[in-house]
Design a protein that fits this description.
The chain is 82% helix and 0% strand. By secondary structure, it is mainly alpha-helical. The longest helix has 40 residues.
């Protein structure tokens, strides 16, 4: 037992490397905020544009969504970071990670929002327009609030998956939590930093996972 604790829960090792882990956590938090905000915003735009029912626009949106959902996020990130320089565009690690995660997540968010919009009866839009509201005003004040409420559980689930996916940024040497934990492991020759990183993810994601379960139960019960 003592050998196990020395190797995986070494408090002295943790004391030495915790500043590095905190730096990685800060980068991961910035990556989550940027990726979730941009992914949600772009996904919402995709869903609203799809609701306009323009044939060629819808075709382009379907291609966009299907293409990005077919790419694993890690592959997409590698293509962006290592492929774009051949086209004359080199992005910093953080920008490449945000772009890759945003493109991938927006395709899923877009489908979720689209399902939410389609769950609202057509009469709601007609009634809103009859009061003098423009299409965008009716969408903003009448349709979207109801649609978003209907898809909160899948939105939360997708956000949880996106937060976990930020760990792939270590593939392009972005010093997020997983990357700094691996660096710390190499410095101390002990896996304790990796265990600590896993526990940090657990502490932050467990409440969100419980929230998802609660929302799904409430949705089924309603």
């Amino acid at each position: 037992m003592e050998i196990f604790l020395q190797n995986f829960f070494n408090l002295e090792t943790l004391r030495q490397v915790y500043p590095l882990l905190l730096q990685g956590l800060a980068v991961s938090a910035k990556l989550v905020v940027a990726s979730v905000s941009l992914g949600l915003s772009l996904g919402l735009v995709i869903a609203v544009l799809y609701s306009l029912h323009h044939r060629w626009l819808n075709l382009l949106l379907i291609v966009y969504v299907d293409l990005l959902r077919s790419f694993p996020p890690l592959v997409l990130l590698i293509l962006i970071y290592y492929g774009l320089p051949f086209l004359g565009l080199r992005l910093p690690e953080f920008s490449a990670a945000v772009l890759g995660l945003t493109l991938n997540s927006s395709s899923y968010y877009g489908e979720i929002f689209r399902a939410g919009l389609e769950s609202i009866p057509v009469g709601q839009m007609e009634a809103a327009r009859s009061t003098g509201l423009t299409y965008l005003q009716a969408m903003r004040y009448v349709i979207l609030p109801q649609a978003i409420r209907n898809v909160i559980p899948p939105l939360t689930t997708n956000t949880l998956e996106l937060i976990k996916a930020t760990a792939i940024a270590s593939a392009v040497a972005l010093p997020e939590l997983l990357r700094t934990a691996r660096i710390a492991q190499g410095l101390v020759y002990n896996p304790t930093p990796l265990v600590a990183a896993a526990l940090i993810y657990l502490v932050f994601l467990w409440p969100l996972a419980r929230l998802v379960s609660r929302l799904e139960r409430e949705m089924l019960a309603s």
